[in-house]
C-alpha cells in the first residue's frame, strides 16, 4: 500500500527517485500516466491492468468513456525502477505537471501520485480547510460496520 508524502528531486535526465517504502511494490513494473488533476499517477502493473480492464469494458460509443480512455491510455508509459530506485518521467509528462527539478510523491493506497511542490501545496490548503471538508465529505460513508 502506498502511503505518505515525500519530497524528491529529479535528476538532469528527468529521473525521479521512488521512496524506498514504495519500491518493493513496484518490482513487477509500473505504469505512469497523466492524473485527473495537474499530477501524474503511478500504478503497479497489476493495478493498471485492473483499471485497463474497467476502461476496456466501457462502451466506445459513450463520449465520456472515450475521453477517459484518451486521458489515461494516451499518456501511459510502462516504467521500470532502476538499480538506484529511480523511474524516468517522460518529457511530455514533466511538461504536463510543469516540473523539471522537484516533485512530491504522494501515496494514494493502490497507487501514488506525483505533483510539483507548488501544486501539492495548493492541494494541502484545500484539504486542511476543516469547515469545507465537513460539507465535502458528509455524503461519503466511511463507517466500518455496526
Compile the SSE list and pairings.
Elements: E1 5-9, E2 15-17, H1 20-23, E3 30-34, E4 40-44, H2 45-56, H3 63-73, E5 77-79, E6 86-88, H4 91-97, E7 102-107, E8 111-115, H5 117-127, H6 130-136
Antiparallel strand pairs: 1-7, 2-6, 3-4, 3-5, 4-8, 7-8
What labels would you give this structure?
two-stranded antiparallel ribbon, globular, 6 helices, 146 residues, 8 strands, Chemotaxis protein chec, six-stranded antiparallel beta sheet, 36% helix, alpha+beta
CATH homologous superfamily label:
Transcriptional regulator MraZ domain
Number of domains: 1
Q: Order of helices and strands, N to C?
A: EEHEEHHEEHEEHH
**N-to-C CA distance:** 26 Å
* Shape estimate: globular
The total count of helices amounts to 6
What is the average per-residue confidence, as pLDDT, rounded to a whole number?
A: 93
| CATH T-level topology | Chemotaxis protein chec
Unreliable runs: none
* Percent of residues in beta strands: 15-25%
CATH architecture: 3-Layer(aba) Sandwich
Structural class designation: alpha+beta
Query: What does the main sheet amount to?
Result: 6 strands, antiparallel
CATH class: Alpha Beta
Number of strands: 8
What would you report as the Rg, rounded to the nearest angstrom? 16 Å
Helix share bin = 25-40%
Strand order of the largest sheet: 1-7-8-4-3-5
